[in-house]
Amino acid sequence: MDYKSIIDNCIVSNQLISMTPSEKIVELGYYLDLNMEKTVIDFCCGYGEMLRLWSDAYGISGIGIELFNEFAIKGNERIKEFSLDSHVKVVNTDAKNYKDDTQYDVVCLSGENLCGSLKENIVFMERFLKPDGKLLIGTPYFIEKNVPNELIEFEGQLNTLTEIYDIIRTQGYNLVYFSTGNHHEWERYISWSARRDLESMKLLEDPTEMSKKQEWIDYWYKMYFEYRRRYEAWGMFVIEKVK
Description:
By secondary structure, this protein is an alpha/beta fold. It has nine helices and seven strands; from the N terminus they run ααβαβαββαβααβααβ. The mean pLDDT is 90.
């Protein structure tokens, strides 16, 4: 058994704030036609691990936009550790208000409903895209149309795969490639988020605040066990316009 590879995969997984494993991200890079000449901007990038992987595998350059300073600091440290800081970096700023006159070969947005809907997210991303570029959208979706109200109250109204496809086509794009998640990746994300809350709870001294944090952790897990595991999934979608 290759123990080192297992450990390395765990380290990489801790840096990925999505339900897409590292090998799938590298595969996505192939369908995005990434190479040393391509530039990428990744909104809501977390630790910037997707950029780091693509820079390492394909030689791309680009930037990640991340609201949380903790993620930006740790992400840039990891990028520097791999000597890729001359190619990619994470910028700590609000993606909604980010301004950049540069147009990129690939524009990414994963996991955040930044502008209110999938359609509005696509319109926002287009501002930064070269005319012949590609968009990469990561989003949760409902596996079927009829889901329990408890899940809608928790997650909001999500699209189904068919609805995602229809929105993509309505915006003038074609679906080039897509990858959906599995239970293992969902569980990795769910437990990653809970561990962060657990670590923050350990720093609390007020019993009331500790109790509230514990209630949230319990609620987070139970929503997955009772509803999200059955009715919700995650997908990454590569789309482009045909001129």
